[in-house]
Amino acid sequence: MTTELRVLDPSEWDRWFGVLELAFGGVPEAPEARQLWRDLTEFDRFLGAWDGDLCVGTAGAFTFRLTVPGGASVPAGGVTMVSVAGTHRRRGILTSMMRRQLDDLRAAGEPLAVLTASEPEIYGRFGYGVGAYAVRGTIDTTRVRLTVPEGTDGVSLRMADPAESSAVCEAVHTKLVPLRPGMLARRPGWEREPLLDPPGDREGASALLCVLAERGGEVVGFAHYAIRPEWAPAGSGGSVNVRRLMGLDPAAEAALWRFLCSVDLTSSVRFRGRPVDDGWQHLVSDVRRCEPTLRDALHVRLVEVGAALEARTYQAPVDVVFEVEDAFCPWNAGRWRLTGDAKGATCVRTGDAPDLALSVRELGAAYLGGTSLVSLASAGRVRGLREGALVEASVAFGSPVAPWLPHGF
Ligand SMILES: CC(=O)SCCNC(=O)CCNC(=O)[C@H](O)C(C)(C)COP(=O)(O)OP(=O)(O)OC[C@H]1O[C@@H](n2cnc3c(N)ncnc32)[C@H](O)[C@@H]1OP(=O)(O)O
C-alpha cells in the first residue's frame, strides 16, 4: 500500500475531520465545536494521509508558545487531531505522520513539541515524555470543610454570562501564562474554546455558568462550571462540575473554591485537569474525601535538544554531560554538555565523558520541572555515571511551581 502524506487543503477539511471523528468513536462533534476546530486549523501545518482519494490519516500542529521553567515563552508545535482510519491501522501511517511532523517542526525552528494523548502509551516511541500531570477528584462537600486564607472575605463574587465575560476571563488566563511552566500562549481564536458547551455533552448538568471573583472592581479570578442538581437523570446526588478555575492570588482562588463547595442542592464538587500542587489540597479538612487521582496531562518532546535545554533556566547551578539516545530524531543523539543556572544556560555538543545517560523521552518528562530525574532513575530510565551528577541535575531541573496545562487542544 502506498499512502501519500500532504498538507491539508481547506476543501478537504470536512472529509478529513470525518476520518478523525470516526477514529474517535464516530460521535459527531457539535456544530459549534466543529466550527471552532475548523477556524483554528492552520492549514499549512495540518497533514492528511491519502490512499488514492480516500483520506486515511489526520494530524496537525498548532502554533503555540510554551512557558518553560524560568518564565521564557518558547515556540512549540501543539500536536493535535491525530488519527488513522480503522481500515488502515497498524501499517505505519501514524509513524509516517510523526516522522513528517517532527521534521517540519525542526525546519520551522520550533525546539519543542507538545501534545495531550488519547492514550498515554502511543507517543513514548516517538520521544515524548509526560512533562506534566494533572489531578482529578471529587470533594464530598457534606463532610469536607475549607479553611481559607486571610483576605478571602475581601473577594466579592458575581455571576456573569460566560460569553459576555469571556474577555475578562481570558485576561486572567493570559496573566497566569508566564507564571507556570506548561501553560501556552495561543493565537487569537482560542478564547472561544472555554465557551464550548454543546447540550449533548452536558450529561444532565446545566449550561455553562461563570462566576467572577473581584477585588476593588478588578476581576481577579473566575470559575466556569455546571450544576447537576440532585434530581438530574442518572444522577447520584447533586454535583458541581468545575470546568475551569483560575485566580490571580490565593484569596481569589479560595473564594471560588468556597463558593463552589457551598452551592445549594449539591453534595460534591467534581474537578479534573488541576495542577498537582493546587491550593485546594491545603484548604480542605480531609483530602481522602476528595479522591484525588493522577493522570498524564502534557507530553513533551525535545525536537532540538540543545536549543530546548538552552531555552529554560535552572533553579540551581548545573554542569553535566548527557548521553542522549534518540532513535527517532537521530540529530539529537550523542553527548551534550549543559551548563546553566537561574540566569541562563548553554547546551553544546561535547566529546567529554558522560555524567548521565537517558533517552530524549526522559528529557521531555523532566523538562518542565514536574518529573524529577531522580524519580525517573528509580525506574531505571536514567543512569547516573558520575557520583553526584543525578542529584545535581535533578535539583537544577526542578521547578518551584508544578507544570500545568489548564485546557486540552
Ligand atoms: C495528540 C492526539 O491527537 S492523540 C489521538 C490519537 N488518536 C486516537 O487515539 C484515535 C484512535 N486511534 C487511531 O487513530 C490509531 O490507532 C493511532 C493513531 C493511535 C495509531 O495509528 P497507526 O497508523 O495504527 O499506528 P502505526 O501503525 O504507525 O503504529 C506504530 C507503533 O505504535 C503502536 N501503537 C499504535 N497505536 C497504539 C496504541 N493506541 N497503544 C499502544 N501502541 C500503539 C503500534 O503497535 C506500532 O508498534 P510497532 O512499531 O512496535 O509495531
Would you write up a description of this structure?
This protein has 409 residues and is of the alpha+beta class. The chain has three domains: 4-115, Gcn5-related N-acetyltransferase (GNAT) (Aminopeptidase); 135-297, Aminopeptidase (3-Layer(aba) Sandwich); 304-397, Nonspecific Lipid-transfer Protein, Chain A (2-Layer Sandwich), CATH 3.30.1050. Helices cover 22% and strands 32% of the residues. The chain has ten helices and 18 strands. It has helices spanning 13-23, 31-40, 93-107, 166-176, 250-260, 280-283, 305-311, 360-367, 373-378, 389-397, and strands spanning 4-7, 46-51, 54-67, 73-84, 112-115, 129-140, 156-160, 184-185, 209-215, 218-228, 239-247, 268-274, 293-302, 318-325, 334-340, 345-349, 356-359, 382-384. The strands form two sheets. Strands 1, 2, 3, 4, 5, 6, 7, 8, 9, 10, 11, 12 and 13 form a 13-stranded mixed sheet that branches. Strands 16-15-14-17-18 form a five-stranded mixed sheet. Strand 11 (239-247), helix 5 and strand 12 form a beta-alpha-beta unit. The two termini are 31 Å apart. The mean pLDDT is 97. The structure holds acetyl coenzyme *A. Acetyl coenzyme *A (ACO) is lined by residues 23-24, 79-84, 89-95, 115, 117-119, 121-122, 125. The active site is at residues 123, 409. Homohexamer; trimer of dimers. Keywords: Acyltransferase, Transferase. Pfam families: Acetyltransf_17 (PF17668), Acetyltransf_9 (PF13527), SCP2_2 (PF13530). InterPro entries: Acetyltransf_17, Acetyltransferase_Eis, Acyl_CoA_acyltransferase, Eis_dom, GNAT_dom, NAcTrfase_Eis, SCP2_sterol-bd_dom_sf.
